[in-house]
Amino acid sequence: MGDAFIRHIELLGYEKRFFPSQHYVYMFLVKWNDLSEKLVYRRFTEIYEFHKALKEMFPIESGDINMENRIIPHLPAPKWFDGQRSTQSRQSTLAEYCYTLVNLPHKISRCLHVVNFFKVRPDDTNPITDSQIKKPEVFLLPKDAKKNSADITGPIVLQTYRAIADYEKSSRSEMALQAGDMVDVVEKSESGWWFCQLKNKRGWVPAAYLEPMDGPDESEEQEPNYAGEQYLVQKSYTAVEEDELTLKEGDTVEVIHKLLDGWWVIRKDETTGYYPSMYLQKAGEANTSVKSELRNRSAPPRRSTIRNAKSIHKQGRKQISQETYRRNSKKYLQSRRNMKEKFQNKANVIIEKNEREENKPKAQPAVPPRPSKDLILNRCTESTRRKIL
Question: Disordered: where is this region (predicted)?
Answer without folding.
Answer: 351-389
